[in-house]
């Protein structure tokens, strides 16, 4: 049986032949028995870019190649399966998803730098994203979980390879960023409903109690503790914190860099592209990411509106601490003589220190497709607000799309 060898990088040489007598003798000595191989096969692979690690796979693989749709800077995308798609995995589906993911993430985060991307089937129930080489289990069912999973591994080409983490304290920059990238891709590839369901799952997972622990996941450790959060009583803490909370922290940054009036979120992706460019082929830390975010945030719509000079307050709360606040907006509508309406009330914030600060999305519905977006500030246990609208809204909702991580978010009228 001929075994295919797949590795990181580009294949530059392959040779095959017969073992000579010395090679056969060495083999007999090494193995301690008379059997000996008749043939040998050697391949050589080369990476043109600095990477922190590499890998290879050997097996009876059959390559499936999908054509690269772009005319410029072609990338060879191949999936190496085991031949029988009805038994193992649908090769064309996985290869197409890899191409879709790469194209999407190139637009968001910057150019994919490698000449090829090889993906190899393996029988274990996990994925791994090495530079230009992915290991994937049977993942070919068209569902939001499959789309998110494959895209997560593809996103590791940026988060973990193009930009590598310096230490365990920075691992959320790889796993959390890849997890949120997978969620974004699913919203485009499948539906916004699927994206919302994935976000809801990530949020709910942080409120569960690990078996044998009285603490909920979010209470166990801050995000920067990385795999040191794993103990005998909290074996799953690292996964839920680095992957799930890390993704939701990045989602909150997405909101903070988005103009609430227009919904324009390109400044968020510009910031991430800048982060990639500054760390391409090198190490990144939580602190270096904070520095890049701080450089760009004052020019954002919310940065200018509230006069924030940086995001240090945000990272202190969500990356270095373990609180999970509850938010409730209580309001009344007061009609004005000119037909406008004043919305006034307060934002209640519980289960967080008094210094805890967070802008929150506020959405007004006027019937039909007429919707207005703005923000209110939660600061301390009770923060007042007052807004004026041109007419009376039919619906008032605090963060209906769950941009901001919370134990619970609700809206109610004042009597």
Walkthrough of the structure:
The protein has helices spanning 21-31, 91-109, 144-155, 172-189, 192-205, 217-220, 237-256, 266-279, 286-296, 301-306, 312-318, and strands at 4-7, 10-18, 39-46, 56-59, 62-66, 76-81, 116-121, 128-130, 133-136, 163-165, 282-284, 326-335, 341-350, 357-365, 371-379, 382-389, 395-398, 408-413. 36% of the residues are buried. The radius of gyration is 26 Å and the shape is elongated. It folds into three domains: 4-140, Zincin-like (2-Layer Sandwich), CATH 3.30.2010; 168-318, Neutral Protease Domain 2 (Neutral Protease, domain 2), CATH 1.10.390; 326-413, Sandwich (Immunoglobulin-like), CATH 2.60.40. A five-stranded mixed sheet has the order 5-6-7-9-8, with helices on one face. Helix content is 33%, strand content 27%. Strand 12 and strand 13 form a beta hairpin. The longest helix has 20 residues, at 237-256. The protein has eleven helices and 18 strands. With 415 residues, the chain is α/β, with parallel strands linked by helices. Helix 2 (91-109) crosses helix 3, helix 3 crosses helix 4 and helix 4 packs across helix 7.
Helix/strand structural class: alpha/beta
Strand content: 25-35%
Number of domains: 3
Average pLDDT number:
91
If you compute it from the alpha carbons, what radius of gyration comes out, rounded to the nearest whole angstrom?
26 Å
Number of strands: 18
In CATH terms, the superfamily of the largest domain is Neutral Protease Domain 2
CATH topology-level name of the largest domain: Neutral Protease, domain 2
Order of strands across the widest beta sheet? Answer: 5-6-7-9-8
Number of helices: 11
* Rough outline: elongated
The run of helices and strands is: EEHEEEEHEEEHEHHHHHEHHHEEEEEEE
CATH class of the largest domain: Mainly Alpha
What CATH architecture label of the largest domain applies? Orthogonal Bundle
Given as residue ranges, the uncertain stretches (5+ residues, pLDDT < 50) are none
Major β-sheet, in short? 5 strands, mixed
Euclidean distance between termini CA atoms: 78 Å
């Amino acid at each position: 049986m001929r075994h295919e060898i797949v590795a990181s990088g580009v294949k530059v040489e392959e040779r095959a032949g017969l073992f000579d007598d010395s090679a056969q003798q060495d083999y007999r000595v090494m193995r301690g028995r008379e059997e000996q191989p008749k043939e040998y096969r050697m391949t050589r692979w080369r990476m043109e870019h600095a990477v922190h690690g590499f890998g290879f796979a050997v097996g009876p693989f059959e390559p499936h190649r999908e054509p690269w749709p772009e005319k410029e800077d072609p990338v060879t995308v191949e999936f190496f399966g085991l031949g029988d798609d009805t038994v193992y995995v649908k090769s064309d589906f996985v290869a197409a998803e890899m191409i879709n993911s790469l194209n999407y993430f190139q637009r968001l985060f910057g150019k994919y730098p490698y000449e090829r991307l090889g993906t190899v089937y393996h029988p274990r129930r996990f994925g791994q994203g090495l530079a230009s080489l992915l290991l994937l289990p049977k993942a070919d069912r068209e569902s939001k979980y499959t789309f998110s999973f494959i895209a997560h591994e593809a996103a590791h080409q940026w988060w973990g390879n193009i930009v590598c983490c310096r230490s365990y304290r920075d691992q959320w920059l790889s796993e959390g960023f890849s997890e949120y990238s997978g969620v974004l891709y699913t919203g485009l590839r499948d539906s916004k409903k699927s994206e919302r369901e994935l976000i809801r799952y990530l949020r709910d997972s942080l409120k569960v109690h690990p078996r044998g622990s009285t603490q909920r996941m979010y209470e166990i450790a801050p995000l920067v503790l990385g795999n040191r959060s794993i103990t005998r009583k909290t074996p799953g803490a690292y996964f839920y914190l680095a992957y799930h909370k890390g993704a939701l922290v990045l989602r909150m940054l997405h909101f903070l860099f988005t103009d609430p009036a227009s919904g324009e979120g390109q400044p968020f992706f510009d910031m991430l592209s800048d982060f990639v460019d500054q760390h391409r082929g090198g190490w990144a830390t939580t602190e270096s990411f904070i520095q890049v975010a701080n450089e760009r945030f004052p020019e954002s719509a919310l940065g200018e509106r509230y006069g924030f000079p940086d995001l240090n307050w945000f990272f202190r709360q969500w990356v270095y601490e373990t609180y999970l606040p509850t938010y409730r907006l209580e309001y009344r509508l007061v009609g004005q003589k000119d037909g406008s309406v004043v919305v006034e009330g307060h934002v209640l914030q519980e289960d967080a220190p008094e210094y805890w600060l967070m802008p929150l999305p506020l959405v007004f519905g006027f019937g039909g497709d007429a919707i207005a977006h703005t923000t209110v500030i939660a600061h301390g246990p009770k923060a007042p607000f007052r807004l004026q609208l041109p007419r009376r809204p039919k619906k008032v909702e605090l963060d209906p799309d769950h941009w901001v991580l919370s134990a619970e978010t609700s809206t109610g009228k004042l009597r």
